[in-house]
Amino acid sequence: MLLGCRSALRVRCRSMKTVRLSALYATVAAIGVLIASLGTDAVQPRPQPPKSPRLYVFDCGTLEGDPARFNLKREEMATTDMSVACYLVVHPNGTLIWDTGAVPDAEVTSENQRTRHHIVLTNAERYVTLGKSLKHQLADAGHAAGDITYVALSHYHYDHTANSNEFANATWLVRQVERDAMFAEKPPDLVQRATFNALRNSKTVIVKADDYDVFGDGSVVIKWAPGHTPGHQVLLVKLARTGPVLLSGDLYHYPEERTLDRVPTFDTDPAQTRRTRAAIDAFLKKNRARLWIQHDFTANAALKKAPAFYD
Ligand SMILES: [Zn+2]
Predict the structure, then answer these.
(1) pLDDT of 86-108, one tens digit each?
(2) Could you list which residues have their CB under 5 Å from ion ligand 1?
(3) What is the pLDDT of residues 109-149, one digit of tens each?
(4) Would you put residue 112 in left (φ > 0), alpha (ψ -120 to 50) or beta?
(5) pTM: predicted TM-score of the whole model, two decimal places
(6) What is the whole-number distance in angstroms between the Cα of residue 154 and the centre of ligand 1?
(7) How far is the CA of 19 from the centre of ligand 1 (A)?
(8) 233 C-alpha vs ligand 1 centroid, how far in Å?
């Protein structure tokens, strides 16, 4: 018995203890490995592809907006707050992340606690309040950034690119003019290159057509919508139950831009924005599609968020 160990035998006793403990540890470790290997599949199963597309909406924060930059007055508006939304399309043949937020996940230190983040840009600063990281929300929906098939950004502004580096394994769908601006020696205002630098070496498809059919069946289509930035784009998702939905990018920010016909002060080509808006309006009407304005705080608040989804 180990209790009976005396000085002369101490070394041996110790070694016996060591041997017995080692065996115990080895057994525990083996059970642990077994549980872990079972657990990987049992607890976190890879989601089966759905039969038709699903659209997940993630809460990527609330941005404090300045009406003057949108040619609006405070008294004309329901709220000056803007939602920041990120979206995941899960198609039978792959996945597409659309926009990646305003705050990098690395800066989210406490999940589930809404925190006000100060974002310092080259010529400006912004405040974004955020709860969960994008990574956490993706995981709740059963996905991981490294497994996503395609990444597309509506455009290059910081509040759409924050977690782009996480999707460097995906194939990047981008227009040449937008990519050129993103990696120019002097990037445009409101760009935070460090948030998307890794995409530079990603597998990339340079989108040339006005309409780019992501999965080849017409259900998920990136549409060219220039004006806000040169390569700005919007996303059409045809959902079996919900119907066709068009994600706006920043074609509009506030719903009052649409109702009061205002164009932001900082669009790269305001006249082109107006032409694009007219073309998109005609498209929406013809296809009976709904426009989801990504920054529309009130409309976005009413949407169900991941892990719930639209199909
Ligand atoms: Zn934006």
Answers:
(1) 999 999 999 999 999 999 999 99
(2) 159, 250
(3) 888 899 999 999 988 999 999 999 999 999 999 999 999 99
(4) left
(5) 0.85
(6) 9
(7) 62
(8) 12
